[in-house]
Specification:
By secondary structure, this protein is of the alpha+beta class. The protein has 3 domains: about 5-105 and about 285-320, no CATH class; about 110-260, Aminopeptidase (3-Layer(aba) Sandwich); about 340-419, no CATH class. About 35% of the residues lie in helices and about 30% in strands. It has helices at about 10-20, 115-125, 125-140, 155-175, 185-200, 245-260, 275-280, 295-315, 320-335, 370-380, and strands at about 30, 35-40, 45-50, 60, 75-80, 95-110, 145-150, 205-210, 215-225, 230-235, 265-270, 280-290, 340-350, 360, 390-395, 400-405, 410-419. The strands form 2 sheets. Strands 1, 2, 3, 4, 5, 6, 7, 8, 9, 10, 11 and 12 form a 12-stranded mixed sheet that branches. It has a 5-stranded antiparallel sheet with strand order 13-17-16-15-14, with helices on one face. A hairpin with a 2-residue loop joins strand 8 and strand 9 (about 215-225). Helix 1 packs antiparallel against helix 5 (about 185-200). The chain is elongated. The two termini are about 50 Å apart.
Length: about 425
């Protein structure tokens, strides 16, 4: 499909990107290519698309005229999804092109379906649909859940609160995974925080938020073209893992897309199991390298770039990049990593346990915050509600707690293991 109104080539996106990564640099445009701007490599006659690898897919058009402002130059274009169907065959005879396949991409084509139920019936088995509905129902029955799509009008104060929690949840998630996430690099995160607000006001971006009471527990940053929602960054609170908040978020966003004539929900680049499971179409991101075929500098530079990115893809296929991210994370965060893994079980209460003189505790205090995930697992397994839950610590020095809901009362036994 052709892409109209690409958010990643908008003036707002490009201006913010230059401010954060190449402040003061000259923004270049060329007559032979429409829809893109570039910045120049500091030493070479190499021009790279604005946004570099922080877009979720660029589109452009090569002119059919004999314009020659590409002479003696090389142009590197990151992240061109092949499903955009960018026309590359009609171009000046002296303009060469290398297309290098990089990351896989996944999307949901919603056009054939009238609503979420219709899509679910055509995509998932009956048992899978049952599980997804169970996650949704349990989440809403155990907590005070609400959903909000920030799209258009929002105060800067409310935006800042959500974005601060967004960062906190990402840090928590990747500290648990013990792997580096480039979105959290200071410069990159500052860019996302800066660019999303004006684009949100212009309805070119949104923040989809799942709340437990007034606390965000799932957040997704989206961008929009005319008929496509691009899922840029998504995260949920890992303490709610039992409830599959990520799946609930996808279902809610499919509902929103159906109600707002959005034809494609694009999960963008990178392989994750949830993308493959939910998507109904896979595609590839490509890097496009244009060069002057009559220039030795241009042809040799383009060839070196081609080999370089092909090699990177080979290493990526061997998961070398993931191992490098884990090593980078460890070097930067070795003092934060918890080497005590909490192993825990729920047991029925026996007759030897007395409830006399026990004082209830809360997981909202720093001392007992580590209990949150365990208590949420208890809620999920026993269909209890958070508002009814009481927690007591047993004074036996064995790290045992009593969890009491309306219908169920159990002992939580925690065993710390050195890892």
């Amino acid at each position: 499909m052709s892409l109209k109104d690409n958010p990643f080539t908008s003036k707002t996106f490009e201006k913010s990107w230059f401010n954060h990564f190449y402040k003061g640099a000259t923004r270049h445009t060329f007559s032979f290519i429409h829809g893109l701007s570039f910045y120049k490599h500091p030493k070479l006659r190499l021009f790279i698309n604005t946004g570099r690898n922080l877009t979720k897919g660029i589109s452009y058009e090569i002119t059919e005229t004999n314009l020659t402002d590409f002479k003696n130059k090389v142009f590197l274009l990151y992240d061109v999804p092949d499903f955009f169907n960018v026309e590359t065959t009609t171009r000046p005879s002296d303009l060469g092109l290398h297309r290098i396949r990089q990351y896989p991409g996944f999307l949901i084509n919603l056009e054939p379906y009238k609503d979420l139920d219709d899509y679910m019936r055509s995509t998932f088995s009956k048992s899978s649909r049952y599980k997804f509905k169970k996650y949704h129902k349990r989440l809403e029955s155990c907590f005070d859940i609400s959903y909000k799509m920030f799209y258009g009008e929002v105060t800067k104060e409310e935006y800042d609160v959500v974005f601060a929690q967004f960062k906190h949840l990402l840090e928590k998630r990747f500290l648990d995974k013990q792997i580096r996430n480039n979105n959290l690099d200071a410069k990159e995160w500052g860019f996302y925080e800066d660019v999303a607000y004006p684009m949100l006001l212009d309805k070119k971006a949104s923040l989809f938020v799942i709340y437990n009471a007034d606390q965000p527990i799932g957040i997704t940053l989206n961008y929009f073209s005319e008929h496509i929602l691009f899922d840029a960054i998504t995260v949920f609170d890992i303490d709610y893992a039992k409830f599959h908040v990520g799946s609930v978020a996808i279902m809610k966003q499919i509902e929103w897309c159906s109600a707002h004539q959005i034809k494609i929900l694009d999960f963008s680049k990178g392989f994750f199991n949830y993308k493959e499971r939910w998507g109904n179409k896979s595609y590839n991101f490509e890097y496009h390298i244009y060069y002057d075929k009559k220039s030795l500098f241009s042809t040799s530079t383009a060839f070196v770039l081609k080999i370089y990115f092909q090699l990177k893809q080979v290493l990526r296929n061997k998961n070398v990049n993931e191992k490098l991210h884990k090593l980078t994370f460890w070097l930067k965060n070795k003092d934060k990593i918890n080497y005590e893994e909490l192993d825990y079980v729920f047991n029925e209460i026996d007759g030897n346990i007395s409830m006399d003189n026990l004082t209830s505790i809360g997981t909202d205090s720093d001392e007992y915050r580590f209990l949150e995930k365990m208590t949420y697992d208890f809620l999920y397994l026993n269909m209890e509600q958070l508002k009814d839950l009481k927690i007591y610590r047993l004074p036996d020095g064995e790290n045992r707690y009593i969890l009491e809901g309306k219908r169920k009362k159990m002992v939580l036994q925690i065993n710390a293991q050195h890892i």
